[in-house]
Design goal:
The protein is an alpha/beta fold. The chain has a single domain, classed as Lysozyme-like. Helix content is about 15%, strand content about 20%. The chain has helices at about 65-70, 145-160, 170, 185-190, and strands at about 20, 25, 30, 35, 45-50, 90-95, 100, 110, 115-120, 120, 130-135, 165. Strand 6 and strand 7 form a beta hairpin. It is globular, with a radius of gyration of 16 Å.
């Protein structure tokens, strides 16, 4: 699949019907302050899949959205004391029902990967797009989430020079374990029809 044409800035041109300035037409926008510019010449060629729920195992309460926008009430649950003051974000979040939220333009750097290394490069935030699935690492995800994820990844592959899709566990092994054993990598591979080398050898 050919890479999209890029502007002199290095940021890809996007299909206007689906993308505008790195924002996806089919996502609900809730902009996060936790972001930054990508390094000059960064090649946005990696999608990183995560899982998250706050508190762990509780879904549909809006707490993930609050975390990514620095509006979480740290005193609302004892678990939040352990992450108090954390400033993180992801480009996208997919709820258990398959609803899609976007917090950071894909042309910008979200704070989702942390200390990381993949395909011979470190600092994966610099050149990756982060997608969070609402869930608990190791547990299964919903069919609606895979449907949304597949459509989003297909659109990202069209809009950016993506050549790799990996989990947080693959870019930060030992430190992170999401999305975990409950994530159906064969289903995602089949839905995208990308060559095997686009995915981790252990996925």
């Amino acid at each position: 699949m050919p890479a999209p044409e890029t502007a002199s800035s290095g940021i890809p041109h996007h299909t206007p019907a689906l993308w505008q300035g790195g924002w996806y037409r089919f996502a609900r926008v809730l902009e996060s302050p936790n972001k930054g510019l990508r390094p000059a010449g960064a090649l946005i060629d990696l999608i990183v899949i995560h899982s998250i729920s706050l508190p762990p195992g509780e879904f549909g309460n809006g707490q993930v959205q609050r975390l990514f926008t620095n509006t979480l009430d740290w005193d609302a649950h004892p678990y939040f004391q352990g992450i108090r003051g954390l400033q993180v974000s992801s480009h996208f979040f997919i709820s258990r029902e398959g609803a899609l939220w976007q917090f950071v333009s894909c042309d910008e750097r979200a704070w989702h990967a942390g200390e990381s290394s993949y395909r011979g490069r470190t600092q994966c935030n610099d050149d990756s797009i982060g997608i969070e699935l609402e869930g608990l690492e190791g547990n299964p995800f919903e069919a609606a989430q895979y449907e949304t994820l597949s459509g989003l990844c297909a659109s990202l592959v069209q809009a950016y020079p993506v050549t790799h899709i990996a989990g947080h566990e693959h870019i930060a092994p030992g430190r992170k374990h999401d999305p975990g054993a409950g994530f159906d990598w064969p289903l995602l591979r089949q839905s995208l029809a990308l060559p095997p080398q686009c995915f981790p050898s252990t996925a």
